[in-house]
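Propose amino acids for all 700 sites.
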């Protein structure tokens, strides 16, 4: 026997029969419950591929060093704390996966010269803080290094000798300087996001092979010319200290351009050199007008101009026929007889901008966020767009909402709570997330009973939208303040159950029509909601949308900028449960129902085990919600996070809390904090829709 696949079973030990196969070349034991590899692994000297990923291993057997034919080795998603020196005996390794472990340091002799065939090394999500000076020497075949989410502070100068490398991912470390990269002529991806850099690596302009450059979230004050990077597809420069920016790359390939939250003191660069941009992020730049060149970007689908100082929108925006999301929230947009700005004899730039029907030119638009502006009248053509195309227009804290039919516009009432939210399509084709914001419910509950939530849809947005619209009414139908047996916890759980039944009835009727959208039958959504009532927070969730509570520190924080992720561990509390098919409890439930889990997915299809919809996988997908309650913290710094997995796939609970806490201390703006959390998740590589919500409350 040459190949043996025993992955995705429930083995706690490697079966003895395996060691009776001396000719075995490929062994897959991934996704089991194995906690130890016996020393007799050394007899498998012909082994070329060994996959031990997603087990419960705490140690790496030194005897594995005798398996010198290995060219592929995976120990990803275990609990390893260190590696033996014998690993350097595996000189034929081409691929080594050590990601998602607890490794704090590498063996003394662990360097690329010991692995002459190695092409891919992945040790992201560990605690490694040091690489030896000669780590990159004699590495003629090495191509890809993934070292993000570690504790590295310096990178060896020898990296300049690694001329074969194509990918360097060092995001989320503590790097404050980086060696020259001028000799890395094959480098296509450089990710240094969320570090401590003050300068970009020397020779950046010479790496003309770059396709992705991510410098997000550093302290960089100046940027050399990047016009030579003509192959660039993705550029992330947001959240630095750049006061000016030279010309953008002369790249017809540039798809994503993120230059948000920069303290610019000069005009924006021209966008004419990158005509194929699809996603453009210009939020929080103190812009007073929309750059006219944007209208020449005919492939633009996402435009974020939020958190600026715009007073009007130019009608030429109507030329952006492919635009899917337009976010102009948190500006100074005004129109009509606005008493704050209009006097009898005063005119202002852009006056009358809302009298043209240019909105109808946005043929592909799905979401327009006008919240936190100062408009008093509906712009001409906007309501027509909403009525005919079902466009979602968000109007929270915009006086315009008081003059409109709520059936067409989403007011998102926040009540007595200080609420911030932000979302983006990200790298997906469409936005499938929906917020639930009901800070004021109908009488007699007023704002003494408020609910906030998030639904993260898949396949389509239909189920998430249905849930966001109808969940509160289902909850209120079950919740009785006079019935002690119908507690808020039980009411929340029952609301998920009856909402799911209601959705099933809807699609059973609609899908009976052969002309109906048949994707409704295979659509679904996760959900997480928080009910504020009687000085408590009642939380319920299904799927992997998560609710996290920061209780506030019990000591005075002197220097907010010095806080680290680990400082938040005692004060952060997860209130929800991630329902993943490969967790012990969920996998057992699925198996008992006759189903199976492949690669962490039910039947190899769906990556969550509980949700609304997904009836084609019933009963393997359950609508039974998890629910929990805590007393409302009285600390003035406390806050609640409700975010989709697009955030949690990239950030831990504590990392998210740190970002929000520091942002709130810096600006005291909960919307800015939500935006920053969203942008961080995006910059760190989230390829999903990204939605963030922060809830604060008055503690007086």
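Proposal:
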């Amino acid at each position: 026997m040459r190949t043996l696949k025993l992955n995705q079973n429930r083995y706690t030990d490697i079966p003895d029969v395996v060691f009776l196969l001396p000719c075995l070349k490929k062994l897959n034991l991934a996704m089991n419950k194995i906690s130890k590899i016996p020393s007799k692994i050394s007899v498998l000297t012909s082994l070329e591929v060994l996959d031990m990923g997603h087990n419960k291993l705490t140690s790496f057997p030194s005897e594995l060093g005798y398996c010198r034919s290995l060219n592929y080795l995976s120990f990803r998603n275990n609990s390893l704390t260190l590696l033996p020196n014998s690993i350097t005996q595996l000189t034929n390794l081409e691929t080594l996966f050590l990601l998602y472990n607890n490794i704090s340091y590498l063996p003394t002799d662990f360097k690329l010269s010991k692995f002459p065939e190695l092409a891919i090394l992945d040790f992201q999500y560990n605690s490694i803080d040091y690489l030896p000076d000669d780590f990159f020497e004699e590495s003629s075949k090495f191509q890809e290094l993934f070292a993000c989410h570690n504790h590295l502070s310096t990178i060896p100068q020898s990296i300049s000798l690694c001329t074969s490398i194509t990918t360097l991912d060092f995001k989320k470390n503590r790097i404050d300087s980086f060696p020259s990269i001028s000799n890395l002529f094959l480098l296509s991806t450089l990710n240094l996001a969320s570090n401590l850099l003050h300068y970009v690596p020397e020779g950046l302009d010479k790496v003309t092979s770059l396709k992705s450059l991510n410098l997000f979230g550093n302290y960089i004050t100046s940027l050399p010319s990047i016009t030579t990077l003509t192959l660039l597809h993705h550029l992330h420069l947001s959240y630095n200290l750049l006061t000016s920016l030279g010309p953008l790359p002369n790249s017809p390939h540039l798809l994503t351009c993120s230059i948000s939250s920069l303290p610019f003191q000069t005009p924006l660069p021209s966008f004419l050199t990158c005509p194929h941009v699809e996603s453009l992020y210009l939020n929080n730049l103190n812009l007073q007008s929309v750059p006219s060149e944007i209208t020449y970007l005919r492939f633009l689908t996402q435009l974020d101009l939020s958190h600026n100082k715009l007073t009007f929108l130019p009608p030429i925006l109507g030329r952006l026929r492919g635009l899917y999301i337009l976010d102009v929230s948190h500006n100074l947009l005004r129109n009509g007889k606005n008493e704050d700005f209009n006097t009898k004899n005063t005119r202002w730039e852009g006056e009358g901008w809302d009298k043209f029907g240019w909105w109808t030119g946005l043929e592909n638009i799905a979401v327009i966020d006008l919240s936190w502006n100062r408009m008093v009248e509906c712009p001409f053509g906007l309501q027509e767009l909403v009525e005919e195309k079902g466009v979602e227009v968000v109007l929270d804290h915009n006086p315009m909402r008081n003059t409109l039919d709520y059936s067409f516009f989403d007011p998102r009432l926040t009540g007595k709570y200080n609420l911030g939210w932000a979302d983006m399509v990200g790298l997906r084709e469409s936005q499938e997330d929906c917020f639930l914001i009901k800070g004021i419910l109908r009488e007699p509950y007023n704002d003494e009973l408020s609910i906030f939530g998030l639904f993260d849809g898949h396949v389509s947005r239909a189920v998430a939208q249905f849930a966001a619209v109808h969940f509160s009414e289902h909850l209120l139908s079950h919740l009785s303040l006079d019935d002690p047996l119908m507690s808020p916890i039980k009411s929340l759980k029952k609301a998920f159950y009856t909402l799911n039944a209601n959705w099933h009835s809807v699609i059973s009727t609609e899908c009976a029509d052969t002309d109906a959208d048949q994707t409704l039958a295979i659509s679904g959504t996760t959900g997480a909601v928080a009910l504020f009532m009687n000085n408590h927070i009642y939380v319920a969730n299904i799927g992997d949308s998560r609710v996290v509570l920061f209780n506030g520190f019990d000591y005075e924080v002197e220097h907010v900028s010095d806080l680290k992720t680990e400082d938040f561990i005692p004060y952060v509390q997860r209130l929800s449960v991630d329902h993943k098919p490969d967790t012990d409890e969920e996998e057992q439930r699925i198996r008992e129902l006759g189903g199976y889990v492949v690669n962490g997915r039910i039947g190899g299809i769906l990556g969550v085990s509980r949700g609304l919809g997904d009836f084609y996988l019933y009963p393997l997908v359950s609508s039974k919600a998890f629910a929990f309650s805590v007393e409302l913290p009285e600390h003035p710094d406390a806050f609640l996070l409700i975010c989709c997995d697009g955030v949690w796939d990239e950030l831990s609970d504590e990392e998210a809390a740190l970002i929000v806490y520091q942002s709130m201390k810096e600006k005291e703006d909960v919307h800015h904090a939500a935006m920053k959390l969203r942008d961080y998740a995006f910059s760190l590589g989230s390829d999903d829709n990204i939605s963030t919500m922060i809830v604060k409350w008055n503690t007086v």
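The longest helix spans residues 488-510. Residues 238 and 260 are 5 Å apart (CA to CA).
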